[in-house]
Design a protein that fits this description.
The protein is of the alpha+beta class. It has a single domain, classed as Alpha-Beta Plaits (2-Layer Sandwich), CATH 3.30.70.100. The radius of gyration is 17 Å and the shape is globular. The two termini are about 20 Å apart.
Length: about 220
Amino acid sequence: MAAKKGDGLLMVYSEVPAKHEEEYNAWYDTEHIPERLSIPGVLSAARYQAVEGGPKYLACYELATADAYHAEAWQKWLNNPTPWSRRMSPTVIATKFIRNLYRRIYPATVPAETAEADMAPVMLVGRMSVPGALDAKFNEAYNNERLPLLSRIPGYIRARRFEAVMGEPKYTTLHEMSSLDVWKSKAWDDWRTAVTPVWSGEVRQAMVHAEGSPGVFRRIFPA
């Protein structure tokens, strides 16, 4: 089975004026996403809408490696947009626009079950940074204290963490969930407030979330 998840990730967040939303969504779903999926190294893609946090729209592209974004095929579309793209691209009409490119840092390898998985119905996405002096402690605590506890939560699918190679802040975490009920559950709230030795001290106090983070997003394309 062809891989659907790899070592890279492109996340495009946007908000557009209400008068453009219907056409914007049609452009994204019927032209833009198929264009990007035709590029070698683009493994899968989906669009999400925020139910908490933001920005309102999120397009998520799973990449074999982050280099797929810089490949000739991708740059060709960027440099030679279609007439519809010239009118509807978020670079043209968005009131908020964030485009971040990432490389995976957790887990160390992609298990076959993850590589073959479809885009999650719901994602909680954190976008955060810490002072450089705390990077090692932050990653150690996140990976080895925080994330193992998530296996206890019914309906929780997986966590993956990435480091930005383009854009800010430095880190993003994707929490994949089967439904919004997971995010609303007591089990999730217990995890969110759990006290662990390293994380709950200096690390948590120093971590800064970007505006709109953490955001909870439900998949809108494919439906």
